[in-house]
Design a protein that fits this description.
seven-stranded parallel beta sheet, 18 helices
Length: 461
């Protein structure tokens, strides 16, 4: 049977086509074409697909197709390894559900206050839950969450959930759902542990496999041999040679992410660290600044960067050689998206040669080690980002909209529209990117003036 090429070829609930239109989707990706017919039939599906392959739209359509919005009960549960991925998945599923009236989706993750989540569950059950295993298990044990009516269970990035030690939580959550549910398992890799979970939780699953090279553009892989003392200079040299905007630098240890980001900032780069020890607001602000162009370099741990939706990323640097081939593949897959090529650079010291050799063997590649381009380690050698971010202590609860912020900046502040970048509005705060040379004027005018006839506290990040 030939796989369908367009979503209109599928017997989808017509309400879902509005969501596809909102996302701009017309033609299906390979993983969508291969999995959606089985998803719509209600079959269990086990899919191996790389990051950026369109799997969220695939399982999002599958679960929304089976939702009855007139029934106030939890009908679909998506488990994700990290808070960031859960929030990204929730955003995409909400957009897909644009045409479904009265659908309630709730995100349940750790690292944020429990009380609002309990209050929302107490008010009335959501139709769809997207969450992390730890928080979902916690709410189950508190008897605040009931999963007896779940029709669809999705395990997204299942390999990483097991890597992070969530197997016990997953088994407990699965046991709380009906045996008649549909189970969808998506994973970039399929080690034995994933096979065991699939065997224990799924019924005659349809298997789908999409290799990374099928729908991913070419990624140029470079390898540089460095002495440990040269690493910072080699990293700075690579960033200066990269003229295409933003870069993500991966470190194996959380503490190294802080140290590397601090060293780059000292050299003059606009670099920020992203790791699991950051508070939720700090993590959000780092991601906002990276997305809006006021931070060019994100120095991240693997867990923190898992599930980040980063477009137009031309360079990924492995500051440390990853511990295994799967991690290496996940890291370099952050670049080369949306039909563009990308560069993945790995710094390798003598002590890391054995790890690199294992990756070469596992992936069938040859790592030709080159000499590094070293930047001088002096203050001001780095390149500044084009934008700066202002934080406004007001948001959706104050009825603020992006247009209000633009109006204040182009009106009272007198800025040209071309000086204003991306605007993010959260419940209690908002962020606006302003061209570096205009940020002092914008800050001064906003602090002295008003937005929608109200004064708000404004500061530069």
């Amino acid at each position: 049977m030939t796989s369908p090429l367009e979503f209109t070829d599928l017997p989808l609930d017509p309400a879902l086509f509005a969501g596809l239109d909102a996302l701009g989707h017309v033609q299906m990706t390979p993983v969508q074409a291969q999995s959606l017919p089985a998803l719509i039939e209600g079959r269990d599906v086990i899919a191996q697909a790389p990051t950026g392959s369109g799997k969220t739209v695939a399982f999002g359509l599958g679960l929304l197709h089976r939702i009855d919005a007139s029934r106030i009960e939890v009908q679909a549960l998506v488990l994700c390894p990290t808070r960031e991925l859960a929030e990204q998945v929730a955003r995409q599923v909400r957009k897909l559900a644009t045409g479904v009236p009265n659908l309630k989706l709730l995100t349940l993750t750790g690292g944020v206050a429990l009380a609002p989540q309990l209050a929302s569950l107490d008010q009335h059950a959501p139709h769809v839950i997207v969450g992390t295993p730890g928080r979902v298990q916690e709410l189950l044990r508190k008897k605040a969450l009931k999963l007896r009516d779940v029709r669809v269970l999705v395990l997204d990035e299942a390999d990483r959930m097991l890597d992070m030690g969530f197997e016990e939580q997953i088994r407990e959550i699965v046991a709380a759902t009906p045996r008649t549910r549909q189970t969808l398992l998506f994973s970039a890799t399929f080690p034995d542990a994933i096979r065991a979970v699939a065997q224990a939780t799924m019924r005659e699953p349809v298997e789908v496999s999409v290799e990374a090279h099928v729908d991913q553009p070419a990624i140029e892989q470079r390898f540089v041999e460095v002495e440990p003392a040269q690493k910072t200079a080699a990293l700075a040299g690579a960033l200066l040679a990269h003229h295409d905007g933003r870069a993500v630098v991966f470190c194996n240890m959380r503490r190294d992410a802080d140290e590397v980001a601090s060293s780059l900032a000292h050299l003059g780069f606009d670099a920020l660290a992203l790791h699991g020890d950051l508070e939720q607001r700090d993590r959000e602000e780092v991601l906002v600044r990276f997305a809006n162009g006021s931070c060019d370099v994100l120095v991240a741990s693997d867990v923190a960067a898992r599930g980040l939706d980063i477009e137009d990323l031309g360079l990924v640097v492995n500051y440390d050689v990853p511990s295994d081939a799967d991690t290496y593949t996940h890291r370099i897959g952050r670049t080369g998206r949306a039909g563009r090529g990308g560069v993945a650079l790995t710094l390798c010291t003598g002590r890391e040669r054995s790890r690199l050799a294992a990756i070469e063997t596992a992936l069938g590649i040859e790592a030709v080690l080159r000499k590094p381009t070293l930047a001088p380690l002096r203050n001001g050698v780095g390149r500044h980002a084009a934008m700066r971010t202002l934080r406004i202590d007001g948001g959706r609860t104050d009825k603020l909209r992006p247009g209000d912020i633009v109006g204040a900046l182009t009106g009272e502040a007198g800025l040209p529209a071309t000086a204003i970048g991306k605007i993010d509005v959260f419940p209690t705060r908002s962020y606006v990117a302003v061209r570096r040379e205009d940020v002092a004027r914008a800050l001064s005018r906003l602090q002295e003036g008003r937005i929608k006839a109200k004064r708000f506290r404004v500061r530069r990040l």
